[in-house]
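Render this sequence as a predicted structure.
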Amino acid sequence: MKLQLRALALTLLLGSTLLLTGCHRNTAKALPAVNGHQLTAMVISDDHVIAPSLHDNGQAFDTYAGNDAGADLKYSATIFKAFIAKALATKPDVVIISGDITNNGEKASHEYVAKQLRRLTAKRIHVYVVPGNHDLNNPLTRGFKGKKQHEVDATDAAQFKQIYADAGYNEAVSHDSNSLSYLVKPSKKTWFLMLNSAIYKSNYQQGSSTVAGGLPDGTLDWVAKIGREAKQQHATLIPVLHHNLMNHTMINQGYTIGYADQVRQIFSKANIKLALSGHIHAQSIKHKTVNGQELTDIASGALILGEHYYGTLVINQDTGAAQYHATPLNVSHYIQQHQGTKAAKAFQKYDHDVLYASGYNAALSSLYEDRDETHYSSKKIKTLATGMGEANIAMFRGTSVKQTAAVDAWNRMPDSIGLKEFILRTKDLHGNLQWSGQVR
């Protein structure tokens, strides 16, 4: 039988190293250190923003956005502004973005995001970003007008550092000479190691962005050096990267970082107990014991998709105790405030339908493709596709799927059908929204 995990895979998919000193005039004042007993960080990933200036909500953009693997691309800028508003109201010490900041690395989109982030730094909130696989040297940068697409400027590594100078790079106390990675110390006791795990130098040759990620040997040596310094100064060291440190879902090729065992070993020797990642779009928390010590990887659910999660990490800087919880961003409330009730209801419907459809349609296509072998009726295929749509939403939310008739129909399917295992796994999703432990 041909039906395997390809439908799920379709659903999931969605360099200069010089410090710039003359190309960007840094007008922002140095932000104060976090000297209190507690440090609070708001964490997001995969916001995939496309600048409003790059589309007119016309036919070409609607078609493109409708095939974006369940993401709310039509609302990406609005969702991001809703997060900015939430952060301004919450007033955390730090805001972190762990990659895939933009739709496809459009220079205009990066500039739009950076402008929004300056609203946070203006309120003395530290902001730190790292690139994801969509953000650099992306040959798929596009703008949309009417029925047509057109190429727009992409972003290279030097431009990325310039655009986000006030979102981490100017605050860095150490820069990795092998990548866009850097170290920031918002306080003496809490350090964030912002790691560039994106691979982008061959993107133009291959005609697309590279999904997989890794850290060069030189970068790992630099991480080890930083780890030794953190130990000596009794500081908490928390790495932030786009790719995952360990497998979170059945589909992990290209999502878990290359040579993950080696990376985890380096982290363990640096006394790192918690890492923040993204990339898989699903809210997920996994643990692995390395050298007798538990290492936790929190993958933030994509801001642009599903529940539009943002994470809140609270660290007791005296004891190293920490708590994390993921909270759905109330985008519809933000839209209601700024555009009215009708617009908010339209968003709510689109928000559910686009994610549900990505799972439903992928399963429907595969089930019909194998119909000559399975002889399933159209009614049965639609029931199974409905179950896949429901399970797909649950997987991205990180919570167990409800036991509906459509989901239960998969229990009676042969074990040889790969999608059955995926459905069954979504029945037991738990522990992905909250975590507590020691980070030092």
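Summary. The CA atoms of residues 57 and 74 lie 8 Å apart. Residues 1-28 have pLDDT under 50 and may be disordered.
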